[in-house]
Amino acid sequence: MGLMTRAFILIAMVACLTSVAHAIAGQATFYTPPYVPSSCYGFEDRGVMILAANSGLFNNRAACGQRYRVTCTGRTNDGVLQPCTGRSVDVTVVDLCPGCNPNQVDLSREAFQVIANPDAGRINIEYNRI
User: How far apart are CA 122 and CA 91, in angstroms?
Assistant: First the structure.
């Protein structure tokens, strides 16, 4: 194999390794049952590991069914000083959160408590599509 071919393969491998998606920084709150009806699926039960998206992420239902990995990165207030559990949760977009700010998501209570103490109410997060 020629030197140019080897160099090209090496560059291609490095490019593949560096193209990992970057997480979006934001905030999360939570909502409680009943989780149906939802904007995406009506009365169809989609489980409890779910997310209601802000209007930009929701994009007129284009996000319905998309999966995201959400990780708590810290507190937003002085109420719970260390709310994060150190875990991540995988959730599915099922609804619109009309009151959410850009880069804010509303998790089901069950999904929220996987990554943080619900007493915190609102947390800083990173999330990315999986």
Answer: 17
Are the C-beta atoms of 113 and 31 separated by less than 8 Å? no
- Alpha-carbon distance 43 to 1, whole Å? 60
* CA 65/CA 91 separation, integer angstroms: 9
Q: Is the peptide bond before 98 cis (omega within 30 degrees of 0)?
A: no
Q: In this predicted structure, what is the pLDDT of residue 32?
A: 97
Q: What is the pLDDT of residues 73-100, one digit of tens each?
A: 999 988 899 999 999 999 999 999 999 9
**Per-residue pLDDT at 36:** 94
pTM for the model: 0.83
Q: State phi, psi for 52 to the nearest 5 degrees.
A: -100, 125
Between CA 44 and CA 70 the distance in angstroms is: 23
Question: Would you state the structure tokens that stand for residue 96, as one six-digit string?
Answer: 């619109």
Distance, in Å, from the CA atom of 125 to the CA atom of 112, rounded to the nearest integer, reads 11
